[in-house]
Protein 1
Amino acid sequence: MTINLKVWKQKNAKTSGNLETYKVDHVSPDMSFLEMFDVLNEKLVQDNKEPIAFDHDCREGICGMCSMYINGQPHGPLEGVTTCQLHMRSFSDGDTIVVEPWRSAAFPVIKDLVVDRTAFDRIIASGGFVSVNTGNAQDANNLPIGKDKADMAFAAAACIGCGACVAACKNASAMLFVSAKVSQLALLPQGQPERESRALNMVAQMDAEGFGACTNTGACAAECPKEISLDNIARLNREFLGASISNQEV
Amino acid sequence: MSWLTKTLTSSIGKKLLMALTGLFLCTFLVVHLIGNLQLFKNDGGYAFNNYAVFMTTFPVIKIVSYVNYALILFHAFWGLYITYKNRQARPIGYAVVKNSSSVFSRNMAILGTILLVYLVVHMSDFWYRYHNEALPYVQYTEQISTGNVETTLMETGYTQEAKKVESFNEEAGTKTIIVKDLYSVVSFSFQNILLVLFYVLSMFAVAFHLFHGFQSAFQTLGWSHPKYTPLIKGIGIWIFAVLIPVGYAAMPLYFYFLK
């Protein structure tokens, strides 16, 4: 296949960028989207041109590093997969594909398609620790957890923190990410001691980072590669508003 | 900052205020529609004009109506402020966007602005005129035993201090009231096809705004559960996005085509 690419090129955070056109020949339908970029970059290096900078790590769909906004959708047209798990068979010969970085004031572009997502790390850090006893692991049955709760917590914990929710949201809101992180602990007994402070601090940090507010459009959940549900956002609203009323700080 | 200000100015708190005021305005829509259904009574405006007097004189209703006006303004401008802040969260937009959300949910501010313009027109059409302009008066004589009502338009230039003057004639067994004839004002206004069109189109904006807004308010409150969320969504669509806008739109259409 031959693929025409329009890729966002930007030297660094301070300069402005623009879409540049590339043509990639001999693309195999079995290549992943990132492998197609590898082929293009190799050719660019051979031609003494600058390769395109993009984020990637595990290439197994579990690390959350790849972050391409492909033809108007984070992680491209397939549902429930990251960019690294998107294959060229999802496109047709001769297609023109527009690839842009995540767009958010809280995710400044570092170079080309690479954005700075440390805002997410700061939100996680603001959530604080989970009180867990050290020493020997206790008997598993000491802490009974209902199957339904365990399943909901696990579904929330599937979030890989890639930022597709922010990229998809018209307000560049991080609510789906924060809601998944708050939910996975709020649903389990281990998360109870810091339950209130976690919700309050993570929301405060989310606001401080400059993410937008939630309009409940549902674009985040629709584009999430891990299919995190909007129910988590309702839970975050409950956790935050409940904690605001019941915590001891006046 | 006190805990309350901190909560209400957080991104979730700002939305909470939108949800609570929005739901209050939804209850207003229900009450306003039920009251105005009296426009469809074929009684020369007897029920409707009496209702207008009650709504503008009964103290509790007066207080609630001013709270309602304040909340409409708050909901509108707070919403525009949130929209403005949300736009700042993405200073550089995308070249290509393929949306996976509903067009209504993405354009609540535009729909809301249309509604604000509509409300200004609507309030100056009826509310302002009822309170500040020399409206025609109408006299209703009700035969108490039979309930028959005789309608007499007062001559132009007639005016009275009280909103409603009531008198009884015990010999004839009749009750006579003289009130401002808002019914005729409504009836006359809706002979203008442009106004009728504007009102009907505005009701589409109500429908689209509530199609997303009603269920969204509950999501913001954190009320999401497989047991009752389908019911909330159903009420939002069938009552607030269909039944209520259709009910309102029927009024100008009724006067234009049938009166």
Note: Chain B is about 65% helix and 10% strand.
Protein 2
Amino acid sequence: MKILVYVLVIIHLVSCNKDSFTEELLLKPLYANKLYSHFQFTTKWDVDATSDSMFHTNLFPRAISEIVVRHNIQELHISLTAGLWRYETWGYPVVDAAPGAEVWAWFNPDTENVDKNWKELANSLSGLLCASLNFIDSTNSINPEISLRNSGVVQGQVNNTFLRYSSLPREIVCTENLTPWKKLLPCSSKAGIASLLNAGYIHNTQYHSVGIMFRPICADKACTRKAVELQQTVSLVYDYKMLGNRQWTLRRLFGQGIMNACPLAKESSIYVDLSNDDKFDLEPYPHEYITAYRGGYETTYAKYDIKRIKPMSIAASYEGKEIINVNIPPPLYASQYKTGFGQQNGGIITKLYNNHWADLNVVVLQNFPWYVPIYLHTMKIESNGNILQPTVLKYKPGKLREKAHYLEIGLRLPPKSTISISIDFDYVFLKWQEYPPDANHGFYIGSAIISAMLPLAKNYTGIPQDGSTIADSFNASRSGYLVQIRTETMIITLPTPDFSMPYNVICLACTVVALAFGPLHNITTKRLILKVTTKKKLSEKLKSFFKK
Amino acid sequence: MTMSRKNLLLTYSLAVGVRYLFLHSDFQKDIVNRIEIQTPLNSFKRVVEGRYRMSLGIDPYESDSLHVPPLHLTFYTFLIDNFPNYLPYIFMLIDLLTGHCLYTFARRYMLKLYIKQEKNKHTYAEDALSQLLEGRDLYLPPQYALVVFLFNPYTIFNSAAMTTTTVNNLLLSLFFVGIIYDNLVISLAAMTLSTLQSFYPVIMIAPLYLTVYKRKESHLQACLTLFIYALSVIGIIYISGIIYNGYQFLDQTYGFILKVPDQQPNVGVFWYFFMEMFEHFRLLFLFSYQMNVTVLYFLPLTFKFREDPPLLAACFVTLIAIFKSYPSIGDFALSLALLPCWKHLYSCMQQVFISSVTIVITTALAPILWDLWIFWGTANANFFFGATLAFVTAHIFLVTDISFAYTKREYLLKYGNCRQINGKDAKLVLE
């Protein structure tokens, strides 16, 4: 009888855990012989994120729920990226990410000490993902006012004092980050689409980015019950040249075909974007063709339902000659570079390109580390030779060794224009112990983030804010499409002292001080008097010297 | 006989001409941005930045870009707002005013020296005639002072870069005029404003005290003057605090001067020393260095030069320029321009040649070594440090030489040139 009760309780508990897991893979050929593959793993769970029931996890990774509850987190975004997403030729990715590590989090409004929680969160994440996120602290964090909005559901007023953003452009992303990331998945990498993630293959790509996003969502349409959602993503860009030729197969991309779906997944699908001009055939034949209309553009996808297949590998075979099209860049893209030579004064130029036929409203977020003291009055915004006035300007000056400089510029970009934002900075001289071990490697300046709501969905693959899977992005026409473009990171080499010299410098400088002190001391404390000089011959002098 | 009005006018117009030519030359931009001229403390670019931030509603003292006190910031803001196109010319004018102040000071100082000499002539030794001032010493040194100041490349670069040192030099030269004419109002005002800007002129209380004491023969009056000085400094700081909603500017102005957080190289000895300092010794050496420039020589030199407050003030100006935390060549321009006033000491000085040659060589060498380090990457910090070290040493030699010459001249006036005791050869020694 007792056993029966236990069994009933367990069945009840399991059925009460209203959580679901979806795994998806999107394969999309890009311009210039590239293949974009995006893995999207979404776990939804009807639970109150602030309550203790967060700890009774089923599909949701317990490590994340512990971090969320302990640090009082409302929303969390992490990305670990190697390589730069080339917006100009590749269009927009599903998830934008800056080179290196990038973390931003919203804390619940009842958080007492946000900076402390932020520091602790960074340390926890550092342990969780084996990344150097522990270098994040108040000296390299900012809380932007406009650019980074909540992507989840929010109750009440939004207050950016509970937001923290930090990027570590120097972070090198590799297998040691991917392995712990895979362990957060319900099936780990043992089954399902995640089994394609073989470190040996994915780190050979031109661009790879691992991401985690946690946010609160609504459990139903009326938003009466709260739920949480965890999106785990991997974005890879393969170069056909590195693969040998453009006839790609799953085996060639990932080292193996797909064996089965994750048994815990509600849905498990692979989508292949077929809307490229350069046509190819797919083998085996897809289960379904989906035609999606979004923001004025039509896209055709081939869908494979992994739940219905036997072990297989998808192969694309191009027929005929390669078609090389003219690159039509997306409506908005940006780049950033450093000007000046030498190590005295320099400048940073951020270039924005608006290819759209109408005005575009954008917000540029720049996060300069404390060792890049900028002169705001030198900021010049030019658009095709004309001076452009910012619509909004938010600036919080940084402080040497304490605080980063944060700058947010709202701009209305004229149609078909190139806009350059230039700003001057000074090279600072640090104390010798403040230089990293490889001092001449240089110091990094993180990416600028350019946020815009694009009016059309050209080259756009992002998931809408109300959706959580790739399938949700089909036919998802909205009034605007949010892009957050990341620019290049930069490296500056600060002038270095001679690290082997501390003793010499201290001795020499003190000698100079003594050169002043000695004579002045003599002159001021002694009197001039006449004294008889007894002139000795050299031989006598020598004699007296040796007698001593 | 003084410099004729025509000659004076000619000198000033020449000075303006040189500055105008330099202002419109191609290499003006390259030169004014050099670290020998601009330090974090006196850079005009930072003042412009502070004003710009204020116009955006950001506290200019929140960051560490501005180190000018509120009163001076208000003055510069006024200048920038009202005469944005004439700023270089205003700084040119400030330079001319400084030159004229120095000229006025030197004229009066030489006259006073001469009067004193005539008064005490009977007490001097018979063979000390060579040490005495002649008639032409009354008008030549002031002309030299004027020319040395106005045509010194240090001054020209300094005012072309529009550094706040230009204004500070005017204040200090006004102070000199004030003490030589016994004008308390001018000297007090100049000293207060100068102290507010760069803190170190606080040690000028010694020459001020001596001047007042010599005139009024009363310690009480002298102390009262210092009290007024202290009161006005504190009063202005207090009012600035009220206007600027808080006293965070103290940390950015005087805190910045005293704690030396920015290691940008300059012509002094501080920058590399504190760049290479071990962290646990930093505070010790910070204290030692700040005491070295403020209190260490304060009393000894005051006692030594109690008869000659302007010379004391000049020694202090040189020592401040040498040992202050962020020196620039503008500071040295003033101390060099005062040199002609010590013409009567020249015959007793011993290292003038070595010092001046070293100054010339290092002035030419430092920018080259800096370029090799920062722009071409073929040298390192040690090269530039070596040059600044030699530069500073030369100035130290100059100031110690003047102090020693003063002592020696006093001796010679009293005892004459005789170098024999009871027929035996003897020599002068400090004992």
Note: The beta strands of chain B are 420-421, 424-430.
Protein 3
Amino acid sequence: MTATIELSAHRLDAGARRLRDEVRAFLDDERAAGAFVPRCDAWMTVPDPAFSRRLAARGWLGMTLPRRYGGHERSPLDRFVANEELLAAGAPVAAHWIADRQMAPSILRHGTEEQRRRYLPAIARGECYFAIGMSEADAGSDLASVRTRARKVAGGWEITGAKLWTTGAHFAHAMVVLARTDGASTDRQTGLSQFIVDLPAPGVEIRPIRAVDGEHHFNEVVFDAAFVPADSMLGERGAGWSQVTAELAHERSGPERWMSTVPLLRAWAERQGGDPVAARELGRLTARAWTLRQLSLSVAATLARGRSPEVAAALVKDLGSRFEVDVVETVRRLAGIEPRGGGPGLEGLLADAVLHAPAFTLRGGASEILRSVVARGLGVR
Amino acid sequence: MNDELSEDVRAAVGAILDGRDAHPGDFDRPLWTDLAETGFHLLGVPEEVGGSGGRLRDLAVVADLTAFHASRVPVAEAAFLAGWLLGRAGLAVPEGLVVASLDEARRTTGLRLSGCLRTPWARHADHVVTIARSGGERVVAVVPTGGGVERARNLAGEPRDTLVLDHVAAIAAAPADVDAERLRERGALARSVQLAGAARAVLESAGRHITERVQFGRPLARFQAVQQQLAALAAEATAMRLSADAAVLAVEADAADAGIAVAAAKAGCSAAAHTVAAIGHQLHGALGYSQEHRLGAATTRLWAWREEFGGEAHWQDRLAAAVSASGPWWPLLTGGAR
């Protein structure tokens, strides 16, 4: 039993401060020009391709990618700073978020030279968006039980199956699909592979799934013997599980895992009316937010050192997503307003936050799964 | 914050503490002597005044480890507080055990001091460092102990005494830009580090217990409900440690966000102490509730330290006041004004 999760406090340097000021100035201009209205959970649910391209023009997409692939060779901590500013502002970053967060590093690491040249510069320009095809109807938390199969055919593969809860597939240019290439479903983690499927494609049907708020962010993506060429396999045949697991460290570790409702908290903080109960609760949430930011920063610093802090990322996501819900319930309890979908100000922010809250502790790994990961990381199980 | 030097300190202090039996009294003087021999009792205190030098983060390692081991030594009171006051005032560290009083004394004629001053560990101290005020002017003063100590204990049995001064002559004094509020901040930082150390002790003990304890024919660790609780405990303990470490680095750098960092760390660590202690006891079952078990040494410290130098409500209010004073919330969280 090891009593500690490996994580160590990190302080950002002066370069980070300069970048932060640049991003803030850009966001101030955008807001002033009416280019966006702050929204909760905007990284997941508010795509705006034009906004993504403007960020790309500033060099804030593909920040850590090598220059030869259109990137900017900045540190992962610079990327952390730019992203936390975008999240705190509730900016519409959903179009590029998944591509920039996990597909760019995954393609850089596992992709062929041709795949890198094809996708990475386009991601860095804000012109190529990705969806992630992991979950299925019968494979949610238990991802290893995926049933989607890829069958070897002349010149490539035929994919058959259905992915569920696929965020953004309706506007994505490509989707990464986890499918069984070898063995039977009882083989679990072995025999799985990843494919990059350009969208739209023949034999691939994208059906909208409306969330509890009536909005369309998710999809069911049905593959009916859809042909993909041999060179669309990402990484090694049969290595899909380990590749997906490495991706999860990126998927779970970012500041978006605690900041989805920060736009609401921020707006509430800035209109305190002298109620001492509300002030104390604001202090409580501020202390928690400060700590979560330090945790998130230290995970980013660990990633920047080339490590894959899977256990720490799971732990921080568990705490972070519970905080996101805590913010919603605290503001709701004390603000004395009624949520109004599509409405301005606090009412509108609260409406989105209340309706999206159930997803916070499910997506990217349900809290119970994350705690199992933590327990295993502590040597217990 | 895990640089090589800190790791060296961790290893050396660990070697002193590991395998040591719990001291029966309320002050483990042999341990204090061992720490003093290598200078670990006054790390982070400038060498010019007789401290051991080194960085605040190194002192934090000593505070963390002695808290983890529930050692009965006044690391926080001697180094974080008394040593810091002496360093600020440029006063030499006096002989023997030196601790600080948490309240400001009244300075009467000359350098004579009066007041009832909360002074943890005073009964064992040879000298006490205190802030003394006369009108708006403050000095740091050193007074000998002896005579007027009213004894009390916190929930963990640690000495939490009151030093009664009635026109006692200071043996040294010098002006310094400090007051009781800044001293309290310093104490809150120390307690945050210690709370995190005690939380780690609970986590380690719980992890060991559930892998060893067999019920229903299998170790408790095989039960998912138990695993989930341990993970929740680990999450809070890790958050405590990260916030305390980050606050130490902010204070060490004398950064603009140091005040926010300390307030957030103490508010967070005090608030999390209950969760950690409650889950810790739940996982240990009745066995952990006996005084013989080492769990209680950690949990009683959590219960005592969370209130000392301000509980979470105090620091939450401070944070809220900082928000309303500085305007925008997010810039405050990210390190000060733009």
Note: Chain B has ten helices and ten strands.
